TrEMBL record:
Annotated positions binding substrate: 50-52, 94, 198, 249-250
Active-site feature positions: 239 (proton donor)
Catalytic activity: 5-(methylsulfanyl)-alpha-D-ribose 1-phosphate = 5-(methylsulfanyl)-D-ribulose 1-phosphate
Keywords of this entry: Amino-acid biosynthesis, Isomerase, Methionine biosynthesis
EC number: 5.3.1.23
Entries under Gene3D superfamilies matching the protein: translation initiation factor eif-2b, domain 1 (1.20.120.420), Translation initiation factor eif-2b, domain 2 (3.40.50.10470)
Site, Transition state stabilizer: residue positions: 159
Summary of the function given for this chain in its UniProt record: Catalyzes the interconversion of methylthioribose-1-phosphate (MTR-1-P) into methylthioribulose-1-phosphate (MTRu-1-P).
InterPro entries linked to this entry: IF-2B-related, IF-M1Pi, IF_2B-like_C, Initiation_fac_2B_a/b/d, M1Pi_N, NagB/RpiA_transferase-like
Organism: Streptomyces flavochromogenes
PANTHER family reported in the protein's UniProt record: METHYLTHIORIBOSE-1-PHOSPHATE ISOMERASE (PTHR43475)
Gene name of the record: mtnA
Pathway in which the depicted protein is active: Amino-acid biosynthesis; L-methionine biosynthesis via salvage pathway; L-methionine from S-methyl-5-thio-alpha-D-ribose 1-phosphate: step 1/6
Lineage, uppermost ranks: Bacteria, Bacillati, Actinomycetota, Actinomycetes, Kitasatosporales
Gene Ontology molecular-function annotations: S-methyl-5-thioribose-1-phosphate isomerase activity
Protein name listed in UniProt: Methylthioribose-1-phosphate isomerase
Length: 341
């Protein structure tokens, strides 16, 4: 039987995308059947499907849904225009992760060959993501070994970068699971990841499923944990990486990197080649998604602020390359800084 982390997070079945509704976890294992482009856009914007590689794969399958809706095999003209408009909507559903536009464009490039070809490209990308993640995890395990020779590791991670965020296996969390499989993990500290709790809800769920010892901490406890010697290495994912290695990732990542640098703790980013955007040099040019105030002003359905209070709610921040010990992809270590290694 395959390990839970190897199970695909989304698949094509009976003209629909089938995926776990990540909003319902950890309480409920609810599957969504997304059969229209509107369904896919809504799933991406509401974070039912989330994580840079996963939203890319959902977007690519969304192009296939559109192609079947608007084009018969070999047709051109208005049908193609409609698919292009849908592809544009899918790619714009979330602005920060470059994987989304990359995957949508890749599926769209097969449109002239008909809907079956678009679908074949999208499903090939699911298989590819799985293979890429396995290669990346092998390199990242080595990068951790090089920087943390001690046998028993205390790791810290932020957000969710596991199988839910990818086709399967995961990136940073995949690396943590592989280290745990090798008997090298004493404990994982999981940032709860305010405001939508991807760490508390999803990463803790994946770690529990795999039987890896972990504790959840509030995001603001991470620096204190480092100062108390509870963290040997920080591992995170990425939504967009610029040519010089600045990394956009879930809000709170930058603060973690500053704290890790202060304490001399390796800070490793694990992300596929498809997360690189070499058209940008400087991370300050990355578009950061701003989300609704009520994600911050409510907690568990209850307002926590005075009526009318506004929120500052960026979904991501940018960590400069100088604070990152290593960026690891399926090709190996792309960037290594001496700052904290
Ligand atoms: O808003 P989210 O939950 O989609 O943010 C996800 C992250 O920031 C992840 O760290 C990133 O997409 C990498 S997932 C392998």
């Amino acid at each position: 039987m395959s390990k839970p982390s190897d199970q695909p997070s989304l698949r094509w079945d009976d003209n629909a995308i089938v995926t776990l509704d990540q909003r319902a976890l950890p309480h409920e294992r609810r599957f969504l059947h997304l059969s229209t482009v509107d369904d896919v856009v809504t799933a991406i914007t509401t974070l039912a499907v989330r994580g840079a590689p996963s939203i890319g794969l959902a977007g690519a399958l969304g192009v296939a849904l559109s192609a079947y809706a608007h084009c018969s095999q070999g047709s051109t003209g208005d049908g193609h225009e409609a698919v292009r408009a849908d592809a544009h909507r899918l790619a714009a559903a979330r602005p920060t992760a470059v994987n989304l536009a990359w995957a949508v464009d890749r599926a769209l490039a097969r449109l002239d060959d008909g809907p079956d070809a678009v679908l074949a490209e999208a499903t090939a990308m699911i298989d590819e993501d799985l293979a890429v993640n396995r290669q990346m995890v092998a390199h990242a395990v080595q990068a951790v070994r090089d920087r943390c020779p001690q046998r028993s590791l205390r790791l810290l991670t932020h957000c969710n970068t596991g199988r839910l965020a990818t086709a399967a296996v995961g990136t940073a969390l995949g690396t943590i699971l592989a280290l745990a499989d090798a008997g090298r993990v004493t404990e994982v500290l999981v940032d709860e990841t305010r405001p939508l709790l991807q760490g508390a809800r999803l990463t803790a769920w994946e770690l529990a499923e795999a039987g890896v010892p972990h504790r959840v901490c509030v995001d603001s406890a991470a620096a204190a944990a480092m100062s108390q010697g509870l963290v040997d290495c920080v591992l995170v994912g990425a939504d967009r990486i610029t040519a010089r290695g600045d990394v956009a990732n879930k809000i709170g990542t930058y603060a973690l990197a500053i704290a890790a640098a202060h304490h001399g703790i390796p800070f490793i980013v694990v992300a596929p080649e498809s997360s690189w955007d070499r058209s940008l040099a400087d991370g300050r040019d990355i578009v950061i998604e701003e989300r609704a105030d009520d994600e911050v002003t409510f907690y568990g359905g209850t307002r926590t602020t005075p009526l009318g209070t506004r929120a500052y709610n960026p979904a991501f921040d940018v960590t400069p390359a100088s604070l990152i010990s290593a960026i690891v992809s399926e090709h190996g270590v792309h960037h290594a800084s001496e700052v904290s290694a």
